[in-house]
Write a structure and sequence with these properties.
Helix content is 30%, strand content 25%. With 427 residues, the chain is an alpha/beta fold. Strand 16 and strand 17 form a beta hairpin. Helix 1 packs parallel to helix 8, helix 1 runs antiparallel to helix 9 and helix 10 packs antiparallel against helix 11.
Length: 427
């Protein structure tokens, strides 16, 4: 993160995952893929993506493997009791936050007292964390249990916070924990470092997201499918707050709606552009160029664009005639040969579950007109996922404004995501 941002982030977007960023009712992941394309094309280079989830690190991992989620810069997990920087092997917990939460907290006492309520059904072991004890409970009984449990724990010297969300989940946390408190802690750290984001927007759908909307100076969006307990909180506390939007779109589509509503930056996803040849965008960048190419590649193979030789001629004009593609298998191929192969594959994925997206896209200008672009290129083919670390060398065309020439492309497999039959991999 520090190597990508030299100063304050233009925007910090903080989003819950389940039924906010991720729509579990949409197997095509339409709005999530729209958000992905927008973020990588226009925001990744100077903004921060933060996931704030009730999931623990153990239950977060299978969601990452199931859905086409981007890699966040920071993840707030376990209902605000864990703050983690980076992803995968580079994940680094915020030890200062863990130390802060230890104040007047004793997990053993919480477990002891909660066992006295037979109505509480413990959640899976993966959801039980050092600063979070989690249960399922019927909505009718939840309020009374929360009141009695709070009194009992207070008498035993603990400062706790009990959060009820999604009409079924009850979490007992240290009083200083929670999604809102964790975000406030992060914003304070950024301010001390002189890197407070220019704007912050929070996004949620359930009761454990309510705290996020209480922070001063942040924008907020409650997606159209928000839970009853969050809507009740909104009606009681924030109905007149113009910095909070009740979206009319579900999940990630509601987030895109909010970006436009608050004028925080572009909100038209490249996935919503029907014809890249006719559409002129205000932002001309290597990131947009890469996102645009892979969206066309997907649409071509899904037969969602016209089968036109003109499209292929346009691609040949932006891929250098002597350009080389280093296939993840190690084989070197002329770029134009790869375009010819792509032309023959028109519609081969029509009617199939076939999606592509890029992640962790960064670009560095290495000459007056030349950029080195790095990203992870993902491909979902039915239930199989493949991913390559991709490096592209591109050069702006002086004679044709707002156009790049692709000079070189190099791909290597990401561990665990190689394709068995290497010949089936094109770009």
């Amino acid at each position: 993160m520090d190597s990508r941002l030299n100063g304050s982030a233009r925007l910090m977007l903080v989003s819950d995952l389940d039924y906010t960023m991720v729509d579990h009712d949409d197997p095509r992941n339409t709005s999530l893929l729209r958000f992905n394309a927008l973020w990588e094309a226009y925001y990744r280079h100077d903004s921060l993506l933060v996931f704030s989830t009730g999931r623990s690190p153990l239950s977060y991992k299978p969601l990452r493997n199931e859905k086409p989620l981007l890699t966040p810069d920071i993840t707030i997990m376990s209902v605000g009791t864990e703050i983690i920087y980076g992803e995968g092997d580079a994940m680094l917990p915020d030890d200062g936050w863990q130390h802060y939460l230890n104040h007047n907290w004793d997990r053993n006492i919480v477990v002891e007292e909660t066992t006295k309520f037979p109505q509480l059904t413990p959640q899976a072991e993966a959801e039980q964390r050092p600063h979070k004890v989690s249960f399922y409970v019927d909505k009718v009984e939840a309020t009374e249990i929360m009141n009695v449990l709070s009194e009992r724990l207070a008498k035993r010297g603990l400062d706790v916070k009990i959060i009820y969300s999604s009409g079924i989940a009850l979490d007992v946390l240290p009083k200083g924990a929670g999604k809102g408190q964790a975000l406030a802690y992060l914003l304070k750290k950024f301010k001390i470092d002189g890197k407070l984001p220019c704007n912050t927007i929070v996004c949620g759908d359930s009761g454990n997201d309510a705290e996020l909307f209480t922070l001063p100076e942040v924008y907020g969006v409650m997606v159209d499918n928000a839970q009853e307990e969050l809507l009740h909180w909104y009606a009681q506390n924030a109905k007149s707050n113009r910095r909070i939007l009740r979206a009319t779109e579900r999940c990630a589509a509601g987030i895109l709606q909010a970006l436009g509503n608050f004028h925080l930056g572009p909100n038209v996803s490249p996935r919503d552009i029907k014809d890249f040849q006719k559409c002129k965008v205000n932002i001309f960048s290597p990131a947009y160029e890469v996102v645009k190419f892979y969206l066309f590649y997907e649409k071509w193979r899904r037969a969602e664009v016209e089968k036109s030789e003109q499209y292929m001629q346009n691609l040949r004009s932006i891929f250098h005639s002597l350009g080389v593609f280093v296939h993840p298998s190690g084989v070197e191929l002329p770029l134009h040969q790869c375009i010819d192969a792509m032309a023959r594959l028109y519609g081969d994925k029509q009617g199939n579950q076939f999606w592509t997206w890029v992640d962790r896209l960064t670009s560095a200008q290495i000459g007056c007109d030349t950029w080195l672009v790095k990203f992870y290129k993902w491909e979902l083919n039915e239930n199989e996922r493949q991913c390559t670390l991709t490096t592209v060398l591109i050069k702006s065309q002086v004679e044709v404004p707002d156009t790049f020439t692709w000079l070189h492309m190099h791909q290597t497999w990401l561990d665990g995501f190689a394709i068995a039959n290497a010949e089936r991999w094109l770009f």
